Amino acid sequence: MPKVLIIDDEKDIRSVLKDMLGMSGYDVDTAEDGRKAKELYDKTDYDVVITDIIMPEQDGFEVILDYRNKNQLDRIIAISGGGRTSSEDYLNIASHFGVSSIFSKPPNYKDLIAKVDEIVASHA
Protein backbone atom coordinates (compact mmCIF):
# COMPACT_ATOMS: atom_id res chain seq x y z
CA MET A 1 0.00 0.00 0.00
CA PRO A 2 1.53 3.36 -1.02
CA LYS A 3 2.45 5.69 1.84
CA VAL A 4 1.57 9.38 1.97
CA LEU A 5 2.68 11.98 4.50
CA ILE A 6 0.49 15.04 5.05
CA ILE A 7 2.14 18.02 6.75
CA ASP A 8 -0.18 20.85 7.72
CA ASP A 9 -0.73 22.93 10.83
CA GLU A 10 -4.50 22.98 10.20
CA LYS A 11 -6.04 19.94 11.88
CA ASP A 12 -9.14 20.02 9.64
CA ILE A 13 -7.05 19.91 6.45
CA ARG A 14 -4.97 17.02 7.80
CA SER A 15 -8.09 15.13 8.81
CA VAL A 16 -9.96 15.58 5.51
CA LEU A 17 -6.90 14.69 3.43
CA LYS A 18 -6.14 11.65 5.58
CA ASP A 19 -9.73 10.38 5.26
CA MET A 20 -9.94 10.97 1.51
CA LEU A 21 -6.57 9.43 0.74
CA GLY A 22 -7.29 6.54 3.10
CA MET A 23 -10.54 5.83 1.23
CA SER A 24 -8.50 5.91 -2.00
CA GLY A 25 -6.25 3.10 -0.76
CA TYR A 26 -3.33 5.00 0.73
CA ASP A 27 -1.59 4.48 4.06
CA VAL A 28 -1.46 8.02 5.49
CA ASP A 29 0.62 9.60 8.24
CA THR A 30 0.21 13.20 9.38
CA ALA A 31 2.31 15.86 11.08
CA GLU A 32 1.42 19.37 12.18
CA ASP A 33 4.74 20.95 11.21
CA GLY A 34 7.98 20.27 9.41
CA ARG A 35 9.90 19.35 12.55
CA LYS A 36 7.51 16.55 13.46
CA ALA A 37 7.35 15.51 9.82
CA LYS A 38 11.15 15.21 9.67
CA GLU A 39 11.03 12.67 12.51
CA LEU A 40 8.64 10.61 10.35
CA TYR A 41 10.29 10.92 6.95
CA ASP A 42 13.75 10.23 8.34
CA LYS A 43 12.42 6.78 9.37
CA THR A 44 9.94 6.05 6.57
CA ASP A 45 10.07 6.21 2.79
CA TYR A 46 6.96 8.01 1.57
CA ASP A 47 5.66 7.69 -1.95
CA VAL A 48 4.17 11.20 -1.76
CA VAL A 49 4.52 14.11 0.67
CA ILE A 50 1.87 16.82 0.77
CA THR A 51 3.17 19.85 2.63
CA ASP A 52 1.70 23.16 3.62
CA ILE A 53 4.12 26.05 3.20
CA ILE A 54 3.44 28.34 6.15
CA MET A 55 3.64 26.45 9.46
CA PRO A 56 5.13 27.04 12.90
CA GLU A 57 8.38 25.39 13.99
CA GLN A 58 9.62 24.27 10.56
CA ASP A 59 7.91 25.44 7.39
CA GLY A 60 7.21 23.69 4.12
CA PHE A 61 10.19 25.29 2.38
CA GLU A 62 12.49 23.47 4.80
CA VAL A 63 10.67 20.20 4.04
CA ILE A 64 11.07 20.87 0.32
CA LEU A 65 14.80 21.55 0.77
CA ASP A 66 15.24 18.29 2.70
CA TYR A 67 13.60 16.38 -0.16
CA ARG A 68 15.63 18.34 -2.69
CA ASN A 69 18.76 17.03 -0.97
CA LYS A 70 17.37 13.50 -1.34
CA ASN A 71 16.63 14.12 -5.05
CA GLN A 72 12.96 13.39 -4.44
CA LEU A 73 11.24 16.68 -5.27
CA ASP A 74 9.06 14.83 -7.76
CA ARG A 75 7.30 13.29 -4.73
CA ILE A 76 6.30 16.64 -3.16
CA ILE A 77 2.97 18.43 -3.49
CA ALA A 78 2.92 21.92 -1.96
CA ILE A 79 -0.31 23.47 -0.67
CA SER A 80 -0.90 26.90 0.82
CA GLY A 81 -3.68 29.13 1.99
CA GLY A 82 -1.33 32.09 2.14
CA GLY A 83 -0.14 34.11 5.05
CA ARG A 84 0.71 37.77 5.02
CA THR A 85 0.74 37.62 1.24
CA SER A 86 -1.27 35.62 -1.26
CA SER A 87 -0.96 31.85 -1.40
CA GLU A 88 0.12 32.23 -5.03
CA ASP A 89 3.33 33.94 -3.91
CA TYR A 90 4.32 31.00 -1.71
CA LEU A 91 3.24 28.44 -4.27
CA ASN A 92 5.20 30.16 -7.04
CA ILE A 93 8.32 29.98 -4.88
CA ALA A 94 7.65 26.29 -4.20
CA SER A 95 7.24 25.60 -7.91
CA HIS A 96 10.63 27.24 -8.55
CA PHE A 97 12.15 24.73 -6.12
CA GLY A 98 10.88 22.00 -8.46
CA VAL A 99 8.03 20.35 -6.52
CA SER A 100 5.76 18.03 -8.46
CA SER A 101 2.63 20.14 -8.09
CA ILE A 102 1.07 23.05 -6.22
CA PHE A 103 -2.47 23.62 -4.91
CA SER A 104 -4.13 26.56 -3.18
CA LYS A 105 -6.11 25.77 -0.04
CA PRO A 106 -8.61 24.39 0.14
CA PRO A 107 -7.52 22.16 -2.71
CA ASN A 108 -9.84 20.51 -5.18
CA TYR A 109 -9.64 17.10 -3.50
CA LYS A 110 -10.44 15.14 -6.66
CA ASP A 111 -7.57 16.85 -8.51
CA LEU A 112 -5.23 16.41 -5.55
CA ILE A 113 -5.93 12.67 -5.29
CA ALA A 114 -5.47 12.34 -9.07
CA LYS A 115 -2.04 13.98 -8.69
CA VAL A 116 -1.12 11.63 -5.85
CA ASP A 117 -2.20 8.69 -8.04
CA GLU A 118 -0.05 10.04 -10.88
CA ILE A 119 3.04 10.42 -8.69
CA VAL A 120 2.67 6.92 -7.25
CA ALA A 121 2.17 5.41 -10.72
CA SER A 122 5.27 7.17 -12.05
CA HIS A 123 7.41 5.54 -9.33
CA ALA A 124 5.94 2.04 -9.53
Structure description:
This protein is an alpha/beta fold and 124 residues long. The longest helix is centred in the C-terminal third of the chain and has 14 residues, at 109-122. The radius of gyration is 13 Å and the shape is globular. The chain is built from five helices and five strands; from the N terminus they run E-H-E-H-E-H-E-H-E-H. It has a five-stranded parallel sheet, with helices on both faces. It has a single domain (3-122), classed as Rossmann fold (3-Layer(aba) Sandwich). Keywords: Phosphoprotein. The modification 4-aspartylphosphate is found at residue 52. Residues 3-120 form the Response regulatory domain.
Average pLDDT metric: 91
Largest sheet: 5 strands, parallel
Class derived from helix and strand content: alpha/beta
The helix/strand order is EHEHEHEHEH
**In order across it, which strands form the biggest sheet?**
2-1-3-4-5
| Gyration radius, in Å | 13 Å
Number of helices: 5
Low-confidence runs of at least 5 consecutive residues: none
Which range best describes the helical content: under 10%, 10-25%, 25-40%, 40-55%, 55-70% or over 70%?
40-55%
**Which descriptor suits the 3D outline?**
globular
Distance between the termini: 11 Å
CATH topology: Rossmann fold
Protein name: Response regulator receiver domain-containing protein
Keywords: Phosphoprotein
